[in-house]
Amino acid sequence: MAPPAGVGAAVAGAAAVTLLSAALAFYGPPLDAGAHLRYTGAPYFAAISALKAGADLSHVFCTREAAPVIKSYSPELIVHPVLDSPDAVHEVEKWLPRLHALVVGPGLGREDALLKNVKGILEASKARAIPVVIDADGLWLIAQQPTLIQGYQKAVLTPNHMEFIRLSEAVLRDPVDSSDRRGAVLRLSQALGNVTVVQKGEQDVISDGEQVLECNLQGSNRRCGGQGDLLSGFLGVLVQWALHAGPEKTNGYGHIFISHFEIFELFSALSCGCLWCVLPHKAVQPPSLPEYGRSTTTSDMIAEIGPAFSRLFET
């Protein structure tokens, strides 16, 4: 599917938040200087991966102290040092008409003042029906206040194993049945009002509360900080593109037909967008980087994003 013209992305986290549109935005390093210096990598990885996946521009909304650090990573990121200001929500709202998606969580942290601002940004984004991808400490925020995204079917949650347990037990009030991952992901999605859930793991499990998709593409035994942030950036872009592919672009269906990996079914556009993200996320990991092996880091994977998308999707 060809990307629509003028689509970009943005991400939100302690050191940044991401939004998708003709621009990409990040929100949120913690207020203290030590914390913001610890977490500036996560928003960078999410923002740069969105650009590499096809976003037009990447805007990073962060605290004043974090701005020069994040900006120094890349001249391609547009950095706004406003997240810790009293009028942060208003400052971000001014950009929402130009943005098509929001990524919340990479580098976010749990500082009360920043979380309050991020909640306001989430509400403003929902009011404009902007797709929202939530990861990392954004998931911690949702576990504390599930009503923030209850029933918002343009939201995507991306928990790892421990984040999934915390979130599921907070929402369902029952222990997670670890022997039935597909069922557990399905139940959490249903309990949240059919919010799409992508549980990351050796096999990634995706559910929109109606169907379950599983990605068995081999990734890597190598785990390093920042890998999940790459996925958040991919999701910001591809989820928007999938939702943009309405019935007129899917042979009259509101769903998309998948014929890869022995799957021959109609799935929701959002579920397909998530699948299209976890595939390249696996493909940029160490098996495709034999020259790095066990020393592979997330920075090494960035250069592999373009080739991975070409191998998987280009014809």
TrEMBL record:
<feature type="binding site">
    <location>
        <begin position="200"/>
        <end position="204"/>
    </location>
    <ligand>
        <name>ATP</name>
    </ligand>
</feature>
<keyword id="KW-0520">NAD</keyword>
<feature type="binding site">
    <location>
        <begin position="160"/>
        <end position="166"/>
    </location>
    <ligand>
        <name>(6S)-NADPHX</name>
    </ligand>
</feature>
<comment type="function">
    <text>Catalyzes the dehydration of the S-form of NAD(P)HX at the expense of ATP, which is converted to ADP. Together with NAD(P)HX epimerase, which catalyzes the epimerization of the S- and R-forms, the enzyme allows the repair of both epimers of NAD(P)HX, a damaged form of NAD(P)H that is a result of enzymatic or heat-dependent hydration.</text>
</comment>
<dbReference type="Pfam" id="PF01256">
    <property type="entry name" value="Carb_kinase"/>
</dbReference>
<feature type="binding site">
    <location>
        <begin position="219"/>
        <end position="228"/>
    </location>
    <ligand>
        <name>ATP</name>
    </ligand>
</feature>
<keyword id="KW-0521">NADP</keyword>
<keyword id="KW-0496">Mitochondrion</keyword>
<comment type="similarity">
    <text>Belongs to the NnrD/CARKD family.</text>
</comment>
<feature type="binding site">
    <location>
        <position position="107"/>
    </location>
    <ligand>
        <name>(6S)-NADPHX</name>
    </ligand>
</feature>
<dbReference type="GO" id="GO:0110051">
    <property type="term" value="P:metabolite repair"/>
</dbReference>
<dbReference type="GO" id="GO:0046496">
    <property type="term" value="P:nicotinamide nucleotide metabolic process"/>
</dbReference>
<dbReference type="GO" id="GO:0047453">
    <property type="term" value="F:ATP-dependent NAD(P)H-hydrate dehydratase activity"/>
</dbReference>
<dbReference type="GO" id="GO:0005739">
    <property type="term" value="C:mitochondrion"/>
</dbReference>
<feature type="domain" description="YjeF C-terminal">
    <location>
        <begin position="1"/>
        <end position="312"/>
    </location>
</feature>
<keyword id="KW-0067">ATP-binding</keyword>
<dbReference type="InterPro" id="IPR000631">
    <property type="entry name" value="CARKD"/>
</dbReference>
<dbReference type="InterPro" id="IPR029056">
    <property type="entry name" value="Ribokinase-like"/>
</dbReference>
<keyword id="KW-0456">Lyase</keyword>
<protein>
    <recommendedName>
        <fullName>ATP-dependent (S)-NAD(P)H-hydrate dehydratase</fullName>
        <ecNumber>4.2.1.93</ecNumber>
    </recommendedName>
</protein>
<dbReference type="GO" id="GO:0005524">
    <property type="term" value="F:ATP binding"/>
</dbReference>
<feature type="binding site">
    <location>
        <position position="229"/>
    </location>
    <ligand>
        <name>(6S)-NADPHX</name>
    </ligand>
</feature>
<keyword id="KW-0597">Phosphoprotein</keyword>
<keyword id="KW-0547">Nucleotide-binding</keyword>
